[in-house]
């Protein structure tokens, strides 16, 4: 995960430029996730990044704590929360070693394809056990990932370019391993500069973990009632219970 930490340290200052309208995305994503969360539930967003999901859920009235591997992202999440007068305590932490008491949360959230940065079954299992530990009995885990059942079949080599209102263009190149289980990602961000472009390239690696693989590892870690509910979120959403 250290590579992922460096990736998000570098991306955090301009992460919002990925979106056409980041504030609108904050509101929209929170509204899509909210039906999965009991009213007033205490939430740990253990991959909070700069706060895209955490800020919106906090604005809806959930007590939210944010943690993330990237200290730069966590610092920005704190600044964004302060600018919006939203309560969002944050801490730098690896999801495989969460610095919270057992049973401290009603919901643990890890959205926007965060878990596939863990590249082995052992790492995913370690994170799942920590997520379960910090959940109260009857608590719920909510994860979102890309649709890797489809992506592993098709093995796309890139994503379509996106251009926001300010003119910044973002796209990705994917290089798959021979087995089609993992891919190296190159994240391109092009910002208009005079008559040309300022180009930044960032690199990281993902495990294209299937629904069956992820569900099986969560079950091994003690989760029950693993399902993929239909939601308005932009990625497939997994829900599981502590049992």
Describe the model.
This protein is α/β, with parallel strands linked by helices and 243 residues long. It folds into two domains: 2-147 and 210-241, 3-Layer(aba) Sandwich (Rossmann fold), CATH 3.40.50; 149-206. The protein contains seven helices and eleven strands. It has helices at residues 2-11, 22-33, 52-59, 71-83, 121-134, 148-154, 211-220, and strands at 43-45, 64-68, 90-92, 105-110, 135-144, 162-163, 169-176, 182-193, 196-207, 224-227, 237-241. The protein has a seven-stranded mixed beta sheet, sandwiched between helices. α2 (22-33) crosses α3 (52-59) and α5 (121-134) packs across α7 (211-220).
């Amino acid at each position: 995960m250290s590579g992922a930490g460096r990736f998000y340290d570098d991306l955090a200052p301009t992460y919002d430029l990925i979106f056409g309208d980041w504030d609108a995305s904050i509101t929209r994503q929170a509204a899509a996730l909210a039906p999965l969360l009991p009213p007033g539930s205490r939430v740990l967003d253990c991959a909070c990044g700069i706060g895209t999901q955490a800020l919106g859920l906090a604005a809806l009235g959930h007590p939210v704590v944010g943690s993330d591997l990237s200290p730069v992202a966590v610092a920005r999440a704190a600044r964004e929360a302060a600018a919006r007068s939203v309560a969002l305590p944050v801490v730098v932490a690896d999801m495989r070693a969460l610095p919270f008491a057992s049973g401290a949360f009603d919901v643990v959230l890890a959205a926007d394809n965060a878990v596939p940065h863990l590249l082995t079954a052992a790492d995913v299992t370690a994170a799942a056990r920590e997520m379960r530990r910090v959940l109260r009995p009857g608590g719920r885990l909510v994860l979102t990932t890309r649709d890797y059942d489809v992506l592993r079949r098709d093995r796309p080599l890139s994503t379509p370019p996106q251009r926001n209102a300010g003119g910044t263009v973002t796209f990705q190149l994917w290089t798959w391993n021979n087995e089609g289980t993992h891919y190296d990602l190159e994240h391109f961000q092009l910002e208009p500069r005079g008559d040309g472009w300022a180009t930044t390239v960032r690199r990281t690696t993902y495990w294209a973990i299937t629904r069956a693989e992820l569900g099986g590892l969560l079950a091994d870690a003690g989760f029950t009632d693993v399902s993929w509910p239909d939601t308005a979120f932009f990625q497939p959403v997994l829900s599981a219970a502590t049992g």
